[in-house]
């Protein structure tokens, strides 16, 4: 699974780069449409997000049933890698990507709007299977990042900031 996840993460990153550098007419049209139809876009983003999470969860459940020992071993290895990453300057994110994250959030914590002590937050926590890819990263102040911790992200956001905020965040992730 690790190999497959890595491959997918790499592909997502490459595609993201490609589209950022070459938006093209279709992307421009889509952006204009999204701007003109914010409600519809939010709804679509939420649907997309739920569908892809269900698919990923199904796959992971099936995989776990078939290879419980590999999952456990992978979990230990991922935890070690994550600790190593966190020791080294906040993870694998590039300076450019960080600048883009800040630009898209208006230089503020996506949860509470604070503008100080910003960190990279994995919306779906790494420990819950969230990938370290562009579409799972949001800028968060150190306080929100810490409080969110290993909580199930949707529940946490709704509890502290309401459903509108969740839709906003999903829209943010979807647009990346
Ligand atoms: Zn915050």
How would you characterize the overall build of this protein?
The mean pLDDT is 79. It is globular, with a radius of gyration of 17 Å. It has eight helices and two strands. The protein has one domain (2-175). It is mainly α. The longest helix has 29 residues, at 38-66. It has helices at residues 2-21, 24-36, 38-66, 68-87, 95-105, 142-148, 153-161, 163-175; strands at 118-122, 137-141. α3 (38-66) packs across α8. Zinc ion is lined by residues 109, 111-112, 114, 140-141, 143-144.
What is the strand tally?
Answer: 2
Helix-residue proportion: 55-70%
Named once each, the bound ligands are:
zinc ion
Radius of gyration: 17 Å
Integer count of domains: 1
Poorly predicted runs of 5 or more residues:
none
Order of helices and strands: HHHHHEEHHH
Give the percentage of residues in beta strands.
5-15%
Shape: globular
Mean pLDDT across all residues, rounded? 79
N-to-C span: 24 Å
Chart the SSEs and their pairings:
Layout: H1 2-21, H2 24-36, H3 38-66, H4 68-87, H5 95-105, E1 118-122, E2 137-141, H6 142-148, H7 153-161, H8 163-175
Helix pairs in contact: 3-4, 3-8, 7-8
The protein binds zinc ion (ZN).
Overview in brief:
The chain is mainly alpha-helical. Helix content is 69%, strand content 6%.
Structural features:
176 residues, mainly alpha, two-stranded antiparallel ribbon, 2 strands, 69% helix, 6% strand, binds zinc ion
């Amino acid at each position: 699974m690790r190999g497959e996840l890595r491959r997918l993460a790499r592909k997502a990153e490459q595609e993201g780069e490609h589209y950022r550098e070459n938006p093209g007419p279709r992307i421009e049209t889509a952006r204009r449409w999204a701007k003109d139809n914010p409600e519809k876009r939010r709804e679509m983003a939420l649907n997309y997000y739920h569908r892809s999470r269900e698919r990923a969860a199904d796959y992971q459940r099936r995989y776990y049933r078939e290879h419980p020992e590999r999952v456990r071993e992978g979990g230990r290895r991922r935890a070690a890698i994550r600790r190593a990453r966190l020791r080294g300057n906040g993870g694998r994110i590039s300076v450019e990507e960080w600048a883009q994250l800040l630009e898209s959030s208006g230089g503020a914590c996506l949860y509470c709007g604070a503008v100080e002590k910003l960190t990279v937050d994995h919306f779906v926590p790494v420990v819950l299977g969230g990938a370290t890819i562009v579409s799972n990263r949001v800028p968060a102040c150190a306080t929100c990042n810490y409080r969110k911790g290993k909580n199930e992200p949707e529940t946490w956001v709704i509890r502290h900031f309401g459903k509108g905020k969740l839709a906003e965040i999903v829209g943010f992730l979807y647009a990346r």
